Fold this sequence. Notes:
By secondary structure, the protein is mostly beta strands. It is built from one helix and four strands, in the order ββββα.
Amino acid sequence: MAPCILAGPTCDSADVLYEKTPYPLPVTLEIGDKVLIEGTGAYTSTYSSVAFNGIPPLKTYHI
């Protein structure tokens, strides 16, 4: 495990999670691996809802 800062694909300075408090992730992660991060609030659906920076809207599931 190592502390990581997570950034999304939007090329926007606000598209960053855990910048001030790095998130521990396995150092063996590779491109394409899936990571489940619970409790991001509206972060992903907010950016995705309007095709921000040309990224198509995500499917949103409410549990």
